[in-house]
Amino acid sequence: MSTGVIIVLIVIVVAVVAAVIARLVMARGAGGGQSLKRRFGPEYDRALARHDGDSQAAERELEERVQRHGSLRPQPLEPAALDRYTVRWTAIQEQFVDSPRDAVVEADRLLGEVAGARGFPAGDRYEEQLSALSVHHAHHVNGYRRVHLAAHPNGAGPDRGDTEELRESLVEARALFEALTTSSTTSARGDRAQLRKADRDGGEETAETTRTDSSRGRSHAPWALNRRHVKGS
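The structure assignment produced for this chain is given below.
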């Protein structure tokens, strides 16, 4: 076999191998993109818009978020802390009627505090906290983003007189508050169930625990702030 034929064969083999590798890389990229879309939902679209439609740049950003925060395991809230946070959120909803902006400022503060208590980055590191929340609560985190912008406008948030925008941001933020507290309640109730089982085995179960669980379950009743509840809107 001549040297020229050998060179041609080598070139063909290299080309075939390169084509196979390229297809594998493209397939992996497409699969990763679909996985990120499923995981991040609306956050994927926001990242895409932020990068002017560059899907590779958007996916790199989201992959970096997963690498930084994907291993985070949120901690359950103590029952007493959960009750305090629930009471404060109810007060925020009531405050909105007379003072919408003050209520939104307090909602921003409370969400940061609850997220920090669950084990996310502290509230004074807002961007990092938001990034971590987007990995674990992608479908609810935008409400926090909206109330934070409203609480710290700097020209980017809603106008001070835009009560409807404030109302909508607070309603959307409630979804994240409920996600953070409901998931914590589920974990806490699981722990309490184990304790109750141990009490039953020892013959020491009490009715008080059942009443406490029942009353706490009612504290998460749905809430909707309708336009007619807001003064001046």
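Interim note for the steering committee: The CA atoms of residues 115 and 180 lie 7 Å apart. The chain has nine helices and no strands.
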